Amino acid sequence: MARTSGSHSDITGPRLRDAAQRLFAQHGYAAVSMRQIAAEVGVQAGALYNYIPDKQGLLFNLMKAHLDDLLAAWQAEPKGETPLEALESFTRFHIRFHLDRPDAVFIAYMELRNLEPANFAVIEGLRKRYETVLEDILRAGKDAGVFTLPDTKLATLAVIAMLTGVTTWYRDTGRLSRDRVERIYWNMVRKAVGA
């Protein structure tokens, strides 16, 4: 299929993803049409299919890109030597990474219900990989007698939910700096795991 005259895939493709992410986060995936996305980008609706297979593929690609970036960024993060240092590193990393991407976070957590089964399985697999990072830290801390936890899986889900929730209320113009939020949340997480 020929590219629309005057369009550039290295410009239009990212603009398309940015517009879709913003619209999905503001209005919800189900409420946003391909026509709305096209209007936001400034192309005809049919031209979108030069860049994406369909709306479902767009949602899947946004979620997958977010989780791929998350996992890659964690790999590059200093982890510390002990379970307590690793947990602090994870806590601070999770908050920093997610505060920079509130729209992507909203979509990755709230639009799972709109994924087709095959796409859901891929995204769920990536989410589980990330959850396993934290669960492994908590298990190592429990085994070392550093954390007091009745159930590491439940603690993992609770901690991730608490940390991710920061994106729903935090504003850079608010009374707390990002660093202060990290320190407060680290203190809460430490207490939550019985450290």
TrEMBL record:
Coiled-coil intervals: none
Annotated keywords: DNA-binding
Gene3D superfamilies in the cross-refs: Tetracycline Repressor, domain 2
Pfam family for this entry, one: TetR_C_24
MF term (GO), any: transcription cis-regulatory region binding
DNA-binding region location: 33-52
Domain named HTH tetR-type: residues: 10-70
Keyword DNA-binding (UniProt): yes
Name of the featured protein: TetR family transcriptional regulator
Organism: Rhodovulum adriaticum (Rhodopseudomonas adriatica)
Organism classification: Bacteria, Pseudomonadati, Pseudomonadota, Alphaproteobacteria, Rhodobacterales
